[in-house]
Inverse folding.
């Protein structure tokens, strides 16, 4: 089992930045793909970014490319999401997730990000 705890969310003005963190416990996640997803009110959960085991490969949703950066520190069992040039449409609950195989099997509780215009 893997437990994930997100932190770093909050209220920020448009154009601002936030850095989310996700600390994993219960099992090392260094062998797994890790990702960030988000869910806005009334919308389905959507993929934001993912990073492979050693951090050498990253993937982003088109809506955040060039503004967000995912990274990981395997020694700390932690993954990060640096979010720059935030827009009101980035407002959502952000979730960290771990993909041991073909699917994301472990999820955190989420952290709220609110971007005011």
């Amino acid at each position: 089992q893997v437990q994930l705890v997100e932190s770093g969310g909050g209220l920020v003005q448009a154009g601002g930045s936030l850095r989310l963190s996700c600390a994993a416990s219960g099992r090392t996640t260094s062998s797994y793909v890790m990702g960030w997803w988000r869910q806005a009110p009334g919308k389905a959960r959507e993929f934001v970014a993912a990073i492979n085991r050693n951090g050498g490969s990253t993937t982003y949703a088109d809506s955040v490319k060039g503004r967000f950066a995912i990274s990981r520190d395997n020694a700390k069992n932690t993954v990060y999401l640096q979010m720059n040039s935030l827009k009101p449409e980035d407002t959502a609950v952000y979730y960290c997730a771990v993909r041991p195989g073909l699917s994301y099997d472990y999820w955190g509780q989420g952290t709220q990000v609110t971007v005011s215009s």
